[in-house]
Amino acid sequence: MTRFLLAGGGTAGHVNPLLAVADGLRARAPEDTVLVLGTKEGLEARLVPERGYELTFVDKVPFPRRPNGAAAAFPARFLRAVAQVRAIIRARGIDVVIGFGGYAAAPAYIAARRERIPYVVHEANAKPGLANVLGARRAAGVGTAFDGTPLRGATVVGMPLRREVVDLDRAAMRERAAEFFGLDPSRPTLLVFGGSLGALRLNEAFGAAADTILAAGWQLVHVTGERSDLVDPGLPGYVVRRYVDRMDLAFAIADVIVSRAGAATVSEISALGIPAVYVPYAVGNGEQRHNAAGAVAAGAAIIIEDAEFTPQAVRETLVPLLADRARIGAMAAAAASIGTRTGTENVIAMVDGVLRA
Q1: 3-state secondary structure the chain
Q2: Is the separation of the CB atoms in 258 and 279 below 8 Å?
Q3: CATH topology of domain 164-338
Q4: pLDDT the model gives residue 197
Q5: Residue 196 has pLDDT above 70, yes or no
Q6: Which of 41, 131, 265, 340 is the most exposed place for a label (fewest CB within 10 A)?
Q7: 3-161+341-356 and 164-338: same fold?
Q8: Over pLDDT 90: what percentage of the chain?
Q9: Which CATH number fits domain 3-161+341-356: 3.40.50.2000, 3.50.50.60, 3.40.225.10, 2.60.40.10?
Q10: CB burial class (10 A; 0-12, 13-18, 19+) of residue 328?
């Protein structure tokens, strides 16, 4: 029996691939132990127990960004977090640590090294976070979702994806998806979404220019986000939903997607072979633009900058793209060529190799 400690969390971008790997480990060997390490403040505090995994906590210790009181207290706080993880590793007889970035991962990497057990790093974003940059230097294995991610010794393994995406047969589910949204399965459909909270820039642009999409012969599924106050105009062929709990059906009906460029979003869209127009979120360290770069270089997607995504851009850039069926077909083929549905299996294979070494 093997005992795994999966460390990471904070955001869905860290928690979801962690859970996908946990599910893969449990499915192949239910007798193995899968323990998750997170913080009480992160999304993992809710999502991990809901999925049926045991969650143990480590103190959240942010890396200091400027010289202040928090920076002065950081060394002692971080060493205390490392000691917490070392105690867990010893008490539970952990054989290997798999880290996904975030606050829980950094002390887990140090603890694993001091306890002389191997650890593996998975980085979901094309622009890696600090915990994984540091962890990769001494890791037994480093896997990335995207080619070109600057981590020492990295191998591209893809993104561990949720099963409803991995198992989705889009062609077989199109009729059901059309019925779910009240649309015509024979007409091309554009899917627009900006995450659970929505994207104001996308909502404003399509709220003002949806009629041009419909006039071009396309249907439109617009997932606005739970905080949106966009009013459904009631246009035939224009479906407005604040939230969709069956994104597999949304993907099944989509012939082209407009979305932000989070790592999981780009990975899922590419794995399903769907052409995309990415509008990277303009706040942060630019990781969303990096996430989309590989798809753009392969011809599977285009980028429209957030500040430029206006109703005019919908009319002058997006509508002509939708009219070019040959280009859309080429983009779909390119997406399928770079996407993978085996990220979970690839990460587990890397871990197995480390344990055999």
Answers
A1: CCEEEEECCCCHHHHHHHHHHHHHHHHHCCCCEEEEEECCCCCHHHHHHHCCCEEEECCCCCCCCCCCHHHHHHHHHHHHHHHHHHHHHHHHCCCEEEECCCCCHHHHHHHHHHCCCCEEEEECCCCCCHHHHHHHCCCCEEEECCCCCCCCCEEECCCCCCHHHHCCCHHHHHHHHHHHHCCCCCCCEEEEECCCCCCHHHHHHHHHHHHHHHHCCCEEEEECCCCCCCCCCCCCCEEEECCCCCHHHHHHHCCEEEECCCHHHHHHHHHCCCCEEECCCCCCCCHHHHHHHHHHHHCCEEECCHHHCCHHHHHHHHHHHHHCHHHHHHHHHHHHHHCCCCHHHHHHHHHHHHHHC
A2: yes
A3: Rossmann fold (3.40.50)
A4: 57
A5: no
A6: 41
A7: yes
A8: 86
A9: 3.40.50.2000
A10: middle
Residue 266 near residue 286 (C-beta atoms within 8 A): no
Q: What crossing angle do the helices spanning 325-338 and 263-271 adopt, rounded to 10°?
A: 110
Domain ranges of the chain: 3-161+341-356, 164-338
- Max distance between CA atoms of the chain, in angstroms, equals 64
C-beta of residue 57 within 8 angstroms of C-beta of residue 26:
no
Q: How confident is residue 74, by pLDDT bands cut at 50, 70 and 90?
A: confident
Q: Which letter, b or e, does each residue of 137-168 get, where b requires 16 or more Cβ atoms within 10 Å of its Cβ? A: eebbbbbbbbeebebeebeebbbbbbeebbeb
pLDDT at res. 332: 94
Distance in angstroms (rounded) separating the CA atoms of residues 73 and 154: 32
Token pair in block for residue 340: 């993978």
- Mean pLDDT along residues 132-137: 96
The 10s digit of each residue's pLDDT in 245-262 is 999 999 999 999 999 999
Check residue 222 and give its pLDDT: 97
